[in-house]
Design goal:
Blueprint (H helix, E strand, L loop, with lengths): L2 H11 L13 E10 L2 E15 L6 E8 L2 E8 L5 E8 L27
Antiparallel strand pairs: 1-2, 1-5, 2-3, 3-4
Length: 117
């Protein structure tokens, strides 16, 4: 079996749920399943999408939020079974695909203009 055939086989086995369309600048809420011992709970992580990277089963996205005046970033793979749902709260209008400049901004300067889709 060639390397490309093996990669294709693995990608076919991974099930990617249908999530709503979102891009950099959008504010989203991710319901993430946390497993502690034999208990499960859902934790919501709400923030601004900084980037989307990759395609297909290997796609990831980075979300940033401010918690107790500290910026928290988290990278989520699209194909993980731990994401229950993704909800788009606000559609942002930015001109870039990766908005890392948001890391250096605080307060009102960190606002993103609301767009439409």
């Amino acid at each position: 079996m060639s390397k490309n055939a093996l990669i294709q086989y693995v990608e076919d086995q991974v099930v990617v749920k249908d999530f709503p369309e979102f891009k950099a600048g959008d504010t989203i809420t991710i319901s993430y399943k946390i497993i502690e011992g034999n208990k499960e709970r859902l934790q919501k992580f709400q923030g601004v999408v900084l980037q989307r990277s990759g395609s297909g089963a290997t796609a990831t996205f980075t979300v940033r939020k401010i918690s107790n005046n500290i910026g928290v970033e988290r990278i989520f793979p699209i194909a993980t079974p731990f994401i229950e749902e993704i909800e788009v709260n606000k559609v942002g209008s930015v001109r870039r695909a990766r908005i890392f400049y948001l890391r250096g901004l605080r307060g009102k300067k960190a606002r993103i203009k609301e767009g439409r889709r």
